[in-house]
């Protein structure tokens, strides 16, 4: 099993530029999450999908962030335009049972640096 | 608002020492998970505790869920440099609430 695959691993962009992250979850996991994590801190949920439906996007800054999960499998997270404060690691995770029992499986993340 | 407080935030110890990390809340959780994260990687699930008072062991790591399911601890015996990382606890709400509440993490450094 390949695990949760994210790309790219690293991204450096200038402020005001757009950026997109891609995630391929574990096959059969219907719940997908995007998290943002700052150095040395816990992850902060941005959005949660149940299949193709976004069921919790209350923490997503909708003025500049957008996400989609077409066909309930792969997902993309986009920032447009990026700001300096968006520099962080963006983690994608998936789970089979909503994560409360078997936990989440995380990808390795995308480290974004906005200069 | 549910909160999970982890302590200590940072811990630097020598190889062979024992340590305990705490995760506390005023809220009741249906289950609680512990993750370990190495630099440049995503968190990896270590254990899930479900029953109040439950104790689980994973080699030198001992996890305990409080009787009231509001708190948990992680004890590491004879720490090794390979234990270095960020330890995160995450609590699951009761009922149909599938949202995990995350602690801020404990950054552990074990020096040889």
Structural account:
The complex is a heterodimer of chains A (115) and B (112). Chain A has 115 residues and is an all-beta fold. Chain A has strands at 5-7, 10-13, 19-24, 31-37, 44-50, 53-56, 65-68, 75-79, 88-95, 105-106, 110-114. In chain A, the strands form 2 sheets. In chain A, strands 2, 4, 5, 6, 9, 10 and 11 form a 7-stranded mixed beta sheet that branches. Chain A has a 4-stranded antiparallel beta sheet with strand order 1-3-8-7, with no helix packed on it. In chain A, a hairpin with a 2-residue loop joins β5 (44-50) and β6. In chain A, 37% of the residues are buried. Chain B is built from no helices and 11 strands. In chain B, the strands form 2 sheets. In chain B, strands 2, 4, 5, 9, 10 and 11 form a 6-stranded mixed beta sheet that branches. Chain B has a 5-stranded antiparallel beta sheet with strand order 1-3-8-7-6, with no helix packed on it. Chain B starts with a strand and ends with a strand. The model of chain B has no long low-confidence stretch (mean pLDDT 92). The A-B interface holds A 4, 31, 40-45, 48, 56, 91, 93, 98-109, 111 and B 30-31, 33, 35, 40-45, 48, 50, 86, 88, 92, 98-100, 102-105, 107.
């Amino acid at each position: 099993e390949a695990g949760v695959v994210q790309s790219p691993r690293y991204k450096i962009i200038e402020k005001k530029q757009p950026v997109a992250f891609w995630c391929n979850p574990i096959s059969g996991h219907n719940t997908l999450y995007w998290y943002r994590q700052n150095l040395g801190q816990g992850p902060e949920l941005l959005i949660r999908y149940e299949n193709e439906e976004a069921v919790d996007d209350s923490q997503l800054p909708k003025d500049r962030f957008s996400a989609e999960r077409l066909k309930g499998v792969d997902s993309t997270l986009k920032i447009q335009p990026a700001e300096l404060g968006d520099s962080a690691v963006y983690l994608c995770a998936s789970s089979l049972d909503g994560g409360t029992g078997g936990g989440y499986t995380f990808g390795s993340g995308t480290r974004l640096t906005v200069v | 608002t549910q909160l999970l407080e982890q302590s200590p935030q940072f811990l630097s110890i020598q190889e062979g020492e024992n340590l305990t990390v705490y995760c506390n809340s005023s809220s009741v959780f249906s289950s609680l998970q512990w993750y370990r994260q190495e630099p440049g990687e995503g968190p990896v699930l270590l254990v899930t505790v479900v029953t109040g008072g439950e104790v689980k062991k994973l080699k030198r790591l001992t996890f305990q869920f409080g009787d009231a399911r509001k708190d948990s601890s992680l004890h590491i015996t004879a720490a090794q440099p390979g234990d270095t990382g960020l330890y995160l606890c995450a609590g699951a709400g009761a009922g149909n609430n599938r949202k995990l509440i995350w602690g801020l993490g404990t950054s552990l450094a074990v020096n040889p």
